Amino acid sequence: LASSMPVRAPTDFDANNATPGTRIDIFAPPGKLGVVLDVPPEGGTAYVKSFNDTCPIKDQIRQGDKIIAIDDEDVSKKEAVDISMVLARKSNQIERKITVL
């Protein structure tokens, strides 16, 4: 069984190698996350612009993190609003795996 607590852990084998550009899995609980996403003006991967103080994953997610997958579904080419819709659609799940760079 997966942990009910959010976890920020590198998906590669070296857990000490959590440098920028490392794939990180964050396990989010059910409900709203309070995360604001945006896409760079020149296009590209949606990123975390900000998050609320009540965000349940605020200790795991960082401003600037690029959202590349949700529950192993590639969202790296989706608009920020589309990613928010995916997260909202899955908000009743026991947990959501959010993969960031």
Polypeptide structure, described:
- This protein has 101 residues and is mainly β.
- The chain contains one helix and seven strands; from the N terminus they run ββββββαβ.
- It has one helix at residues 80-89; strands at 8-10, 24-28, 35-38, 47-51, 67-70, 73-74, 96-100.
- The strands form two sheets. Strands 1-2-7-5-6 form a five-stranded antiparallel sheet, with helices on one face. It has a two-stranded antiparallel ribbon with strand order 3-4.
- The longest helix is centred in the C-terminal third of the chain and has 10 residues, at 80-89.
**What is the total tally of β strands?**
7
Beta content comes to 25-35%
Task: Give, in spatial order, the strands making up the sheet with the most strands.
Answer: 1-2-7-5-6
Oligomer: single chain
Task: State mean pLDDT (0 to 100 scale).
Answer: 85
* Run of helices and strands: EEEEEEHE
The largest pleated sheet is described as: 5 strands, antiparallel
Distance separating the two termini: 25 Å
The poorly predicted ranges are 1-7, 9-18
| Structural Rg | 13 Å
Helical content band? under 10%
Quickly count the helices. Answer: 1
The coarse overall form would be globular
Return the structural class.
Answer: mainly beta
